[in-house]
Amino acid sequence: MIGPVLVGLGVFLVVAAALVRFYAYPALARVPAGYHSTTELEATGAQIFNSDPDVLAPEVHDLDITSKTSEVTNADTPDGDTEWTNVTTVDKADGGNFQLSTEQFAFDEVSGVGSDCCDSWVEQSDGTKITRVPVVPEGQIYKFPFNTEKKTYQVWDGELGKATPATYEGEDTVEGLKVYKFVQVIDPTVVETREVPGSVFGSDEPSVEADMLYSMTRTFYVEPITGSPVHRVEERDQELVYDGQQVPAFVGNVHYTDAQVKDLVDEISTKAMLLGGMRVLYPLIMLVLGLAMLGLGLVINRRQAGSLEHDNKQERPLVTA
């Protein structure tokens, strides 16, 4: 009986290997349905502009930043795409809100690249009202692709409203987890023109048209199997510029908190181990074991069949005339 059992197990493992690699793995190597997350960031000693009419000057504050991201329920996206909403709140650590922004983007579930299939938008505020502006997303939106490669990727930047290159700069480790390091450098760029009181620049004019000058160096530490960033560091420099004068609007180092990094590493390392195994190791082990069992079972069956045939020949009575 051992031969047929080995053949059955071998066939089962060979089929299971194919199912894991070509069905289970693709089903899991995509962003999960019903996604929801909260990410905590901080900035110590950031320079921000206080727009209170009684102040109208830059101040230095520690900032607590909360980014809440969730899938849009019942979104009318085509197969393979999903749509997420992100709400980012920037609060002063000593009390009071500094910024609140909301955005919604559609993107590919596997590659993470923005899709123009649906209703993507950002909300912008001029200090008195909030305006929703449609956008066409491009580049990596919330994450890098599953099985991230060692190459340059185009990554979305909300201030510019477009994607710019994030260059691969080598392997690194974060809390013992192997990651790929990507750096996105945005040179000083005027992103808008804003009417501000002339007193901000020491002018006697009631108001002046000031440029908002923006630059950024953004570093991503990405776990390559899942394409998920486990850490992000932003060197932000945003200033109001008028008549050669520059006034800080938001200048500082923004990064994930230490606790957030640890939580992400714990969560993503488990997913990476599972997905990495399902892509190569687990199917390979099942295939090798399956083929070995199948081959051994066939050999045993052949030997048993030969033995039975030999026994039948010996037991056959001698026929005489």
Task: Average the pLDDT over all residues and give the rounded result.
Answer: 90
Proportion in helices? 25-40%
Please compute the radius of gyration using only Cα atoms. Answer: 30 Å
- Low-pLDDT residue spans: none
Total beta-strand segments: 12
Order of helices and strands: HEEEEEEEEEEEEH
Main sheet: which strands, in order across?
A: 6-5-4-3-2-1-12-11-10-9-8-7
Q: Structurally, how many domains make up the residues?
A: 2
Could you explain the architecture of this structure?
A twelve-stranded antiparallel β-sheet has the order 6-5-4-3-2-1-12-11-10-9-8-7. 26% of the residues lie in helices and 46% in strands. The protein contains two helices and twelve strands, in the order αββββββββββββα. It folds into two domains: 2-20 and 280-312, no CATH class; 31-256. By secondary structure, it is α+β, with helices and mostly antiparallel strands. The mean pLDDT is 90. Strand 10 and strand 11 form a beta hairpin.
What layout of secondary structure does this protein have?
Layout: H1 2-28, E1 36-50, E2 57-71, E3 81-92, E4 97-108, E5 121-125, E6 130-134, E7 153-157, E8 162-174, E9 177-197, E10 207-223, E11 228-242, E12 245-256, H2 258-315
Antiparallel strand pairs: 1-2, 1-12, 2-3, 3-4, 4-5, 5-6, 7-8, 8-9, 9-10, 10-11, 11-12
